[in-house]
Amino acid sequence: MIAVADTSPVCYLIPIGEVDVLPPLAACGSLGSWVFLGEAATRGLLELASAIDRLRMTSFRGSPALLKTTLDRFGSR
User: Fold this and answer.
1) What is the pLDDT of residues 25-47, one digit of tens each?
2) What single-letter DSSP state applies at residue 45?
3) What angle do CA 43, 8, 56 make, to 5 degrees?
């Protein structure tokens, strides 16, 4: 069996200083998609707007629409 995994979202937690959100999210089974940043914000593990600002300063190649949608969906919680 061949498995393909995109670890980019997880790897970018290191340069934005949010790697500490992984253990609590992994314990809840919440690492299945890009939405893990939103889930971390929902659980009070990070401040989403600040994390997204730091993400934009990296080489992350996500669409601005994706980041805006994530912020709109999870940023006010």
Assistant:
1) 877 766 655 568 888 898 999 99
2) S
3) 75
Question: Dihedral through CA 62, CA 66, CA 39, CA 2, nearest 10?
Answer: -50
Q: Give the Å distances, CA to CA, from 48 to 1, 23, 44, 68.
A: 36, 18, 9, 11
Spatial contact of 49 and 76, defined as CB atoms under 8 Å apart: no
Residue type present at position 2: I
- Domain regions of the chain by residue span: 9-74
pTM for this predicted structure: 0.77
State the CB neighbour count (10 A cutoff) for residue 21. 21
